[in-house]
Description:
Chain A is of the alpha/beta class.
Amino acid sequence: xxxxxxxxxxxxxxxxxxxxxxxxxxxxxxxxxxxxxxxxxxxxxxxxxxxxxxxxxxxxxxxxxxxxxxxxxxxxxxxxxxxxxxxxxxxxxxxxxxxxxxxxxxxxxxxxxxxxxxxxxxxxxxxxxxxxxxxxxxxxxxxxxxxxxxxxxxxxxxxxxxxxxxxxxxxxxxxxxxxxxxxxxxxxxxxxxxxxxxxxxxxxxxxxxxxxxxxxxxxxxxxxxxxxxxxxxxxxxxxxxxxxxxxxxxxxxxxxxxxxxxxxxxxxxxxxxxxxxxxxxxxxxxxxxxxxxxxxxxxxxxxxxxxxxxxxxxxxxxxxxxxxxxxxxxxxxxxxxxxxxxxxxx
Amino acid sequence: xxxxxxxxxxxxxxxxxxxxxxxxxxxxxxxxxxxxxxxxxxxxxxxxxxxxxxxxxxxxxxxxxxxxxxxxxxxxxxxxxxxxxxxxxxxxxxxxxxxxxxxxxxxxxxxxxxxxxxxxxxxxxxxxxxxxxxxxxxxxxxxxxxxxxxxxxxxxxxxxxxxxxxxxxxxxxxxxxxxxxxxxxxxxxxxxxxxxxxxxxxxxxxxxxxxxxxxxxxxxxxxxxxxxxxxxxxxxxxxxxxxxxxxxxxxxxxxxxxxxxxxxxxxxxxxxxxxxxxxxxxxxxxxxxxxxxxxxxxxxxxxxxxxxxxxxxxxxxxxxxxxxxx
Lengths: 346, 326
Ligand SMILES: Cc1ncc(C[n+]2csc(CCOP(=O)(O)OP(=O)(O)O)c2C)c(N)n1
Ligand SMILES: [Mg+2]
């Protein structure tokens, strides 16, 4: 498994990214962690219906976004709010789905972030299509496609890998192996020696990386992106990480895992080890630390302010986007609803 | 039982009793083991019956249903759980191409006594893909029985009947009612294919199933306050369809409104309206009306109330049934 900085913060490999890159990454980690915490708080206050936290997986979220160019694409899952935010999308736009206002709150074309959706692994063939189209158009776009360990059991995961390999599509598949699919442990998803090994059958190089080590993730994903951009085809990266919190706020992890396991993984926290490393090299000063914390608080305040606003939603939107032009039937139904809403009580 | 059980507990009891009664009944799917299902319908089954009788699978619905087909071919009675309505779609090919057709394909030599449980419908504030009313896809496919309870007693009885049935049953659970507490009557088990008149009435008949039954009953309650006497028929079983009960109920009142959450176009509601129109034409005082969801993808939580058929929309439709001016 690829690892450059271990859980104590010690450097255990060669070819560390430049200190500026790691500092930027650390700053992004601080923001991602703060976003997870803020969203969790909003759920507890009842201002956000549901939030699948990526607490503990922030290094994957941050690295996946950081290695991309502006013209590249990100294909996230529902758990990747922090990755989308790290890509530069306003968290409030991302949270539109989870606060129940619309299915997707950002513009996927403008942001080059595919819409989040819950059907597992179904986004992966789309990622291959976006990459293949880019190559047909002569563009060197790369697509970063995310999924979880559980999703690797779905047929779409396998079809996507196979298509990507056959068409040498410029796709990097990043599996965040956080050890659980809700309650189901990894051992029930796969009997293979690793998830990265699944690439072999498709002719896709697979690599395992410490998913809580931002340095190693950055190196591995940068190389995979470069390979895709060169036209050498897809890669499969398995990030070894852990879902520290419940699947969502509706979940009860005490039914399927013990606290001891969670505590062990807390010690491998992605922020902690990078902070130790950057502090020991002198790159991370108390001033910078305060600066990053300030930026995180500013972001959290922005999220809170936006979430306390009750956005007026127009029910007519229900009919507006189903087709490029609403059908006669939809126009009729829109008129019916409008009449109901203006008619008051029966 | 001191406290009235929820529908979840009624379903859990049905699984437990079926597993105790018949060693070939096996339950599997995603998160049904240690977790007891995301809605806890399978709570405690692994602990009570062991891992071989209730177990988690890899996360793959086509695999789950496909494996159930094979197990049913080899003497078992699989009861599989699809976690939510829209997450059954990866299994669509298995369900449509095999579950529904193997009996016919083999001239009845292979029967598939299996149940596919699907929590369905909206009204729970769920994000996209957690609120679909997917009944029409299944009902449109010959070879599948499609059943949906509206009460806890029916949830228990119909699930027992589905598990005992020699043919494959798509068992649609109205998740909006999962936490409804009601008296549970364990006997008798209603046969699949029998609708029931939930409320007698003389002016018009509301025809509903699953999550729309309580809404129809509420509408009838409200109508009574407004001086109109509405009957309510609960289908319980979409396939087979109980023409007899429905036709008789509509003939008694001469007016009918079908209520369903699913988009109305090419829907189960449309099929009901067509059947009632054909069979009751000479008894009808007005065209049969449908009150359904709009023909839109299921809305986000903050807009779903506009989509779901509610009491007002039902009563507006009833008002439209060409009443003589008095
Ligand atoms: C096709 C499909 N089946 C089932 C579900 C229900 N479900 C939502 S999340 C989840 C577990 C996913 O696990 P994993 O892929 O490891 O991602 P993680 O949640 O750990 O990030 C399940 C079963 C779904 N969303 N889509
Ligand atoms: Mg996982």
